[in-house]
Amino acid sequence: MTAAAARVQRDGERLLLSGALDRDAATASWSQALAAADGARVLDVSAVSAIDSAGLAMLVALAERMQDARIEGVPYGMSDLLAAYRLRPTLAFDDGR
């Protein structure tokens, strides 16, 4: 992906991600994002320009760590990935129930 590098910021109870969340960005920012997730209640991805499966894996890990987090935003490509991996918009696995 050729978009801006991913950034992780914490603003109160919000964990804000921005830029392209691809494999390289997820690898580079994973530790920072996990540390910033503690105590956050909102995972805001509205400024993420694009996402791949590695970026989605990071979001799923963050949402799980945050427990009952509200997800805000749907980056380009995320809807297709959610469907392919049978994930709900909350980033939880859709077991069909």
**Mind summarizing the main beta sheet?**
4 strands, mixed
- Structural class estimated from helices and strands: alpha/beta
Q: How many helical stretches?
A: 3
Q: Could you give the order of strands across the largest sheet?
A: 1-2-3-4
Mean pLDDT: 92
Distance between the termini: 35 Å
**What Rg is obtained from the alpha carbons, in whole angstroms?**
12 Å
Q: Poorly predicted ranges (pLDDT <50, ≥5 residues)?
A: none
The shape is: globular
* Element pattern in H and E: EEHEHEH
Walk me through the topology.
Blueprint: E1 7-11, E2 14-21, H1 23-37, E3 42-51, H2 53-66, E4 70-72, H3 78-84
Parallel strand pairs: 2-3, 3-4
Antiparallel strand pairs: 1-2
What key attributes describe this structure?
alpha/beta; globular; 37% helix; four-stranded mixed β-sheet; 97 residues
What does it look like?
This protein is of the alpha/beta class and 97 residues long. Helices cover 37% and strands 27% of the residues. It is built from three helices and four strands; from the N terminus they run E-E-H-E-H-E-H. The protein has helices spanning 23-37, 53-66, 78-84, and strands at residues 7-11, 14-21, 42-51, 70-72. Strands 1-2-3-4 form a four-stranded mixed β-sheet, covered by helices on one side. Helix 1 (23-37) links the parallel strand 2 and strand 3. It is globular and about 35 Å long.
